Amino acid sequence: MNILLTEQKDKAIDIELVFLKNLNKLSKKIKNRLDKIGFSIEKESIEIVDNICYIGLGKLKGESLKIAFANMIQKINKTNFREIYVNLFQYEKELNLNEIVEGVVLGGYSFTHYKSNTISIQKTLHINISSAKKSKKDLEGQYKNTLTIMKSVNMVRDIVNTTPEDFYPEIMAVKAESIAKENSLECKVFGEDYLAKNEMNVMLAVGRASRHESKLIHLTYKPKKSKRKIVIVGKGLTYDSGGLSLKSSGGLTMKCDKSGGAAVLGIMNAITSLNYEYEVHGIIGAVENMIGGDAYKPDDVLVARNGTTIEVRNTDAEGRLVLADCLCYAQDEVKNIDYIFDMATLTGACIVGLGEYTTGVMGHSEKLKKKMIHSSKKSGELVGVLPMNRYLMNKMESKIADITNSASSRSGGAITASIFLDYFIEKENKNKWLHLDIAGAAYREESWGYNPFGGTGAGVRLILDFIKRLK
Ligand code: BES
Ligand code: ZN
Ligand code: ZN
After folding, report:
1. CATH number at residue 93
2. Are residues 170 and 87 located together in one domain of the fold?
3. Is 437 in the pocket of ligand 1 (CB under 6 A)?
4. Is residue 320 annotated as part of the catalytic site, yes or no?
5. What are the pLDDT digits (tens) for 426-440?
6. Pair 344, 429 in one domain
7. Closest CA to ligand 1's atom 16
8. 73-104 pLDDT, tens per residue?
9. In the predicted model, what is the mean pLDDT of the chain?
């Protein structure tokens, strides 16, 4: 889908978008038709009659506007209409161009890589900005930035949706290198030799039974002037079988377990074009958790890069192990950090606690959590805070090592996972750290809002919004 900003109504238009806040003023014929199909203003319904695409719009802004444009594009994609027209000015108000671009680009996404026959007709949305209060230059700038972010979200969706057979740690590293090249970023990729030499034996253990070498990836964006330093660490489990604590076979999909790492790639892919004045480090632990004679075992005691000993009680709690070493690496390599976030599809418990679509946010600083909630509202990504407390700390105790990787009870599983990660956050960074559990938000096997089936690109819009708002 192309988007064109125009100042007139082009003659080549095939179909025009008409927003409806109520159905009263329509002709009887059209009103009857919309009534019959159960057209709902609140649910952003879409119906095409002749050359008009009617859109029900409860609210002319925010998530509702994004969803309306997503629904519209999905409907029009099934037709042969090519040239679509809309006026940015509706009901005496200027619609938010960012929200339109977001709805169209995210809602129009489909993953067709493995389909044999895909013919798609190129369509163009002509947006008339002639009555807009904002200048053409401003609108074009907005359009460019939003498009950059949304294209990155779709890139992340592609990565997440790609199968473990086609996307393993080495491929993640190759992808990181190509993103770095295109965006003038620094990129370091380390293999298992480096992990062994640098005492990252926990990450090494998780990937030991895989035929694919584990990779530690470090991308850096260094603008000329930098006001702040942000580190984002992503869980990049290109597949999680559970290891010897094997997952049960019922309807399992775990290619989504690389979503945290993929989101890091998405953020780094957008950051140069956005021209932000903050130094950003993206660090990914790309590993495959498999079974085999060489697999790490429940009972093993592993020593992390910072010397913490970990008793493995469950090899399926592998993400926190990989993150443990990656968090140590991040804090050793990057000094004077202002913010450190980790993003991971870490626990099923987070989905149980917050529902499918919401990212769990955990950390010590109330101020920082508030900032993240603000970015959630602004970006449209849902978050919910899960509170850590001192009593849950006991659940990570081990009889024989410093801590265990799997809590003694299932309750509060998302929180106990963050308590585990907290062992690897240095004192000076405690209030600079947030853990984002994206297990529910990153991948769904149904479409929701402007997210089609599969990977959603969770984390990209949220973190980029957070960075944008820094002072
Ligand atoms: N990758 C999973 C978590 C997950 C679950 C992601 C559902 C996406 C959808 C993670 O590695 C895992 O297996 N976690 C265990 C932890 C437990 C063993 C302490 C879980 O949630 O059951
Ligand atoms: Zn697991
Ligand atoms: Zn996992």
Report:
1. 3.40.220.10
2. no
3. no
4. yes
5. 999 999 999 999 999
6. yes
7. 317
8. 999 999 999 999 999 999 989 999 999 999 99
9. 96
CATH number of the domain where residue 457 is located: 3.40.630.10
Over residues 124-138, the pLDDT tens digits come to 999 999 998 889 999
Q: Is 190 helix (H, G, I), strand (E, B) or coil?
A: strand
Q: What's residue 10's pLDDT? A: 77
Task: Check if 318 has its Cβ closer than 6 Å to any atom of ligand 1.
Answer: yes
Last-in-domain residue among 68, 90, 124: 124
**43 C-alpha vs ligand 1 centroid, how far in Å?**
33
CA distance 412 to 391: 11
Q: Alpha helix (H) ranges present in 28-168?
A: 28-36, 62-76, 97-107, 136-161
The token duo for 129 is: 């900005």
Exactly one of 61, 247, 370, 469 is catalytic; which is it?
247
Q: What is the pLDDT of residue 431?
A: 98
Dihedral sign for Cα atoms in the order 188, 193, 199, 201 = positive
Please indicate, yes or no, whether residues 75 and 175 belong to a single structural domain of this protein: no
Residues 115 and 203 in one domain: no
What are the backbone angles phi and psi of residue 468, rounded to the nearest 5°? -55, -35
Instruction: Name the domain count of the chain.
Output: 2
Full residue range of the structural domain in which residue 306 is found: 150-468
Same domain? For 88 and 171 the reply is no
Q: Is 11 a catalytic residue?
A: no
Predicted structure pTM score: 0.98
Counting ligand 1 atoms within 8 A of each CB, the residue from 252, 296, 347 with the most, and so the one to mutate, is: 347
